[in-house]
Amino acid sequence: MKTSIPRYSRISGTGSFLPPKRLTNDDLAAQLAADGIETSDQWIVERTGIRARHFAAPDVTSSDLAVEAAKLALAAADCDAASIDLIIVETSTPDMVFPSAACMVQQKLGIKGCPAFDVQAVCSGFVYALAVADSMIKTGAANKALVIGAEVFSRILDFKDRTTCVLFGDGAGAVVLEASATPGILASELHADGRHVDILCVPGTVAGGKVLGDPLLKMDGPAVFKLAVGVLEDVARGVLAKAERTDADIDWLIPHQANIRIMQSTAKKLKLPMDKVIVTVHEHGNTSAASIPLALDVAVRSGKVKQGDTVLLEGVGGGFTWGAVLLDL
Ligand code: UT7
């Protein structure tokens, strides 16, 4: 009789990349002041926790950032690019309308033939992409996946709108996710509620050789804030229950890095002290789909998050989308 061996997925390496240009709040405030837009380091720090962000040079694309992060993840996993058999990139700022950023990453890394596609769930995108890769590995459709979040949000910011342009930055984070006899990813849960498409969007498109609508980011910050704090607790409880674990089992919470106040509120609801929460928003700003893998890589490379630790990843963003992945590193 044929017995089926359980098949899981596990992160074997992480990598991240930030474009070199770093702007502090004061740098950005000075730039905005030249256009008569008033803001301050004090307001940005108090309301968001952000102190600086990185912006890519004009000729650098999401797939360029993704490739740099991927190379570091491959090296950390001691993995040859040729052995990758699945590439998923999460981005809301792709290089082109099509083809996907994942195909561009595939070409730039010289990987041939494997499936490569983008996932688009904005700031929840990395947990969406990780959950999809996990499912494909568990079913045997892939053995070794590159899962990447990469963004150049600086391209879609309205620098006349101080309520949004001070919040976002550019960057990329990547993981190698491999088939494993031991878990790995313990549980994942994804959600969306399309009734809220308007509260965070870029309401433009390309048609007839022109941009139709507005190609810059619009956000009702307080509405997003309110929804985010509610769903993040629920989805955390959801994955913990699925994995038959409790709050006490979480070694590290790595939430989407949008606002320190949202992270503090989630940690409080999960009864986690802030020293168990990985925070990079002060240095990266909100890098949308890149924020979770960026924070994960920073935490791994600093030695804070170690192999065997139980980590809760949580994302929330445009769509409205949200989700979580619980994993043993
Ligand atoms: O990544 C996807 C998920 N995104 C998020 O999670 C973002 C969620 N939202 C937020 O993080 C917060 O709502 C913001 C950081 C966007 C805004 O913080 P807030 O505490 O909700 O501020 P607010 O929008 O209620 O604005 C308070 C005041 C307003 O002035 P009045 O009306 O009180 O006179 C704003 O005009 O702050 C003013 N303001 C600013 N002042 C200086 C808004 N932006 C700025 C600014 N500098 N950059």
What's the total helix number?
10
What is the molecular shape? Answer: globular
Give the second-level CATH assignment, the architecture of the largest domain: 3-Layer(aba) Sandwich
Look at the structure and give the CATH class of the largest domain: Alpha Beta
Number of domains: 2
- Give the CA-CA distance, first to last residue: 33 Å
Ligand inventory = oxa(dethia)-CoA
At the fourth level of CATH, the homologous superfamily of the largest domain is: Thiolase/Chalcone synthase
Q: pLDDT below 50 for ≥5 consecutive residues: which ranges?
A: none
Largest sheet: 5 strands, mixed
Beta-strand proportion? 25-35%
Strand order of the largest sheet: 1-7-6-4-5
Percent helix among the residues? 25-40%
What is the N-to-C succession of helices and strands?
A: EEHHEHEHEHEHEEEEEEHEHHHEE
Structural class: alpha+beta
Q: What is the number of E strands?
A: 15
Average residue pLDDT: 97
CATH topology of the largest domain: Peroxisomal Thiolase, Chain A, domain 1
Radius of gyration, in Å, reads 19 Å
Descriptors:
single chain; 329 residues; alpha+beta; Peroxisomal Thiolase, Chain A, domain 1; 2 domains; five-stranded mixed β-sheet; four-stranded mixed β-sheet; 15 strands; binds oxa(dethia)-CoA
